Structure formats: C-alpha cells, structure tokens
Amino acid sequence: MPGAPRLPQTGPLSRRAVLGGGALGGLALAGCSTSGSGSSGSATSSSATAPSSSSTTASGSATSTPSSTRAALSAPSDVVTRLEVPWSGVLLPDGTVLVSERESALVKRIAPGGGSVETVGTVESVDPSGEGGLLGLAVDPATFATRPVLYAYFTAGSDNRVVTIALDGGRFGAQTPIITGIPKGSIHNGGRLKFGPDGFLYVTTGESGRTGLSQDLKNLGGKILRVTTSGEPAPGNPFPGSRVWTYGHRNVQGIAWSASGQMWASEFGQDTWDELNVITPGSNYGWPDAEGIVGQNGFIDPVRQWRTDEASPSGICIGPDGSVLMAALRGESLWKIPVNADGSTGEPQRLLDGQYGRLRDVFIGPDGNVWIITNNTARGEPRDGDDRIVKLPQSVTG
C-alpha cells in the first residue's frame, strides 16, 4: 500500500542457518504444496482487490509435498465422519493425520487411508468456553523424526497458550508450556500454528474482543508471532526481544507460504470485510482503525476482501496448482485465489458452495489431494455423519 512503512527485506535468519543448516527431512507441513497444475471454472466472487504487497521470502525452501503423485479421485470422498467440533489437522511423516477437537480437548489419529480413528490423548487444562478450546496443532519437520513432539494452541483458565506434548510410543507424554499470557476471551482467540519454511514456529493470536490490544506491541493479542521451538523470540524478528512478527490484526485464522516464501494470512473482519493478506515482517495491518481496503497511510491493505457473509475465513493452504485455498465458515465454501508469477492474485473462485456447510480447515493430505475439515457440530446445521474430513479430486480444486 502506498506510504505504508516497510522493513528492509534482507530476509530473517532461518532456524536451519542458526542450527548449522540441518535438513528438514521427509516430513511435509500440513497445508503446504507446490506441485501440480490446473484450474477450476467455478463461479467467481464479488471480492475487491488491492495492489499486492511485496512478498516476504523466508530463508530455505518449502518442504516436499505429502505425496510425489496425486491419487486419482473421481468425486469427493469422506476420509472420516462423526468428529466432534474438529479444528485443525496436521500431517505426520508416516502419512497419518492428527486432528484437534475444540470442545473435548482430544487429539485423534486418522490412518493414511482414512476410516480408522483413534484417540491419541487429551490436552490438559483446556477451557472450551465461548470460541475457545483446543485449537491449532503443528509438528516440527526439522526434529520430529528424532524428537516426536506435538505443538498445541489452546484456551486455558486465564489465557491462551502454546504447549509442547511429547509423543511417547504414539501416546501423550509430558505437556510443557512454551508461550503463556496470550489474551483470551469468549471471542477472537486466534489459534493457528504452523512451522514456516525458515524453520520457526508462527502463531496467530486474536485480540479477544479488546480492540486496543492489536496496536499494543507489548501485548501478544492481535498479532502473528514468530518463535523458536522453546517459545522465545526468533532471531531476525522485526522488534528486538519481541515475539511479534506483525500486528494490527483482529483474528487471524489461517497462514500459509507459497513456494517463493510469500506468506499469506486469512483474517476475520467485523461487520464489513474479511481479508486475505500478504504478510511482511513488522507491518501494521490496521485493526481497529481499518477494516478491508482503505488506502490509509501506515497500514497494509489486504490483497483480497469479501463480505462477511461470503467468507468468515478460517484455515488456508497452498493448493497443488499454487493457488491459496481458504476455508470459509459462514460462507460455507472453499475459496480458491489464484496466485500469479509476480505474487499478485487473480479473481477468487467459490468452490463447494453450501455443499458441506461450514469449513474450518484445509490442508494437503497424504495422498496429495486437498482435504477439508467441516465445522457444523458447534454451529450451523449438522448433517448425518458430521463433522467430517473430505478429500477432494483435482476436478474440484485444480
């Protein structure tokens, strides 16, 4: 956006550089894919666009796709059914998927081929009141093979927090807090966790309904954080000694990286505009002074915006053809936003309109196809078998 401040884009230190260049190994990050081609001809939206912000290129390369070949599907297919308020899915090296259930605080394991579901463990001290509960999950691709640890974001009695959970023989071991004191509320608890291509953990937080927190750099609410595996500020962060990567957010729900390293984030608006943003370190995304594209000096505009009844976005991932795929709750759709070679975006396409109800998360499954997680058992109108994970064929997603 013209006039908005930028930090020098010389690139933050990657954790692999800090650690001496260790390899990521074979684990794929859930929600990251850079191969494939194709496009969809579904109906387009009435969303508006702004000039694309300059991209953030993280050190190192994106991890490999879950499968080198994409399994052929003729139609959408249920992977599992009858989940209770699922929130986040994360792929493990052996092709199994872990899923969080927001209200029960259970983490469940899904076999690579689907169908089989078992409980791995219960996250301790979860308070599922309001929109809180057990939210995001992540695993560290650099160390999981030798140090199997699950990262979880959840609402506790007094705050939102991030913990590590040792996986001992595939079951829960010790649970250790690494970030505490993230503001909690009945709304806007953030909660997405993902490891970036630089090897550091990114954490999205909400402003918990207290809008002033978003502009307060001393408060963890309304931010995207970038931290080490122990929860400390990552080297190269824009504000010395701070975990904060970006600020001025209302409630970021999804993050993902293109193959170029460009970081994307989906964000809930208030009454008017939901947003897809390009994330650049140290930038101010405007909340509560700006919602949607406003062209105001000092704030970064979204690259795409939607009316709140069209989207209410949640998880995002990079699809097999390089597009951003965005799960929509109130909009009950999967939005596909094409990404051009220069990092700018094409006209969004609305997929699965109303077909599966509210969608909470989207990621690339072990078969190389796009998997979606529905969210109808907490709100919306549950259908027989909800909530479910569904894998989508190339004919739907491109």
Keywords for this entry:
about 400 residues, mainly beta, Neuraminidase, 5-stranded antiparallel sheet, 4-stranded antiparallel sheet, 25 strands, globular, disordered N terminus
Mean pLDDT: 87
Number of strands: 25
Question: How many domains in all?
Answer: 1
User: What string gives the helices and strands in order?
Assistant: HEEEEEEEEEEEEEEEEEEEEEEEEEH
Query: How far apart, in Å, are the first and last alpha carbons?
Result: 30 Å
Gross morphology is globular
Q: Based on the structure given, which CATH architecture is correct?
A: 6 Propeller
The percent range for strand residues is: 25-35%
Q: CATH homologous superfamily - what is it?
A: TolB, C-terminal domain
Radius of gyration: 19 Å
Outline of the structure:
The protein is mainly beta and 398 residues long. It is built from two helices and 25 strands.
